[in-house]
Amino acid sequence: MAAVKITGIEITHHRLNYDPPFHASWDTRPRTLFDATIVRVHTDAGITGVASGDMMVGFAGHEGLFVGQDALAIERHWRLLNNIQFHWGRCWPLDLALWDLAGKIAVQPVWRLLGGLSPRLPAYASSGTLRAPAALADAAEAYLARGFKALKIRFHRGALNREDWRADIRALEAVRARVGDKLQLMVDCNQGWRMSWDAYPSWSLKEAIPVARELERLGVYWMEEPLHRGDREGMRALRGMVDLRIAGGEMTRELYEFRDLIKDGCLDVLQPDAALVGGITGLRRVAAMAQEHNLVFTPHTWTNGMGVVANAHLAAGVGDSPWLEFPYDPPEWGLERRDYMMAKPLDVDAEGCIVLDETPGLGYALDEDRLKRTRTG
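Structure (tokenized):
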């Protein structure tokens, strides 16, 4: 069989405006729009690979590095994307599109090409807003009724007052009181990074310790991003002080940083996102590192529905992930917003699992009519 050659890379940008806004816990500005970038890799075989996720900033002018090349030379393409990331910006959705293309060429789903561990992934509902205690308890009951067995709760109710984490604990206590042990609970402290317009500081180790002890008391499965992403000594020390798992890495840029986070004993749970760092090609290396060091690998997935699907294929193929993140916090963050670029939104089954099928590639289809209506460039 002759090699399938890349004939073009098409990138389009789209925007969904919405009201009411989404009040993300990690952002002091309410969100009234959602941008998405779609990457299409065309070939001389008439097969197109498609993906989305990060915004592909810095890719313009680099198309010639890939056009005319073997579509299945994924390792070669990954090395060039790694160079582009170093010099210009993150363009990892192209790697995802290449894997979608590879699956279509091979007539296999990507999760099988990656190793085929299991097409069924338990999902945890990843909330994004900061509800009051009673409202959060109501939401927890709704998540339970949808089949979810685990829920991630956001902290930051007192983001600008470093003592107000106690308000977050009260919200967490309300959930425990309402649903007991029916839901496994995770907590995201959102201390690892800030939006470009937010200047308030991250917790210190001394501030994170009492929070961690409260989370232990409440039986929390992991404590995510309790410290600034660069405070490796603090993460290592905190991990040694408590029994609950310490999680992080969602915005880590380089694969070698995961190597060093592992070597320094900073994390129990590694959470890179294939749409934001390394693509599928890079993160399968991180999954292998996690397995070798008996750590949990479970990707971050807060880009859009196509990004969730790509991370799901990675986890289903090689990840051994006990849970996969499923961003879902209606009405502010429902499937109709998250997955507006998809012909059919990704959902969980009655038992709270993401179930992948035998569709070649990544298995999704675009809503071309809506993409035309929302196109900005």
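The CA atoms of residues 6 and 205 lie 50 Å apart. The chain has a mean pLDDT of 96.
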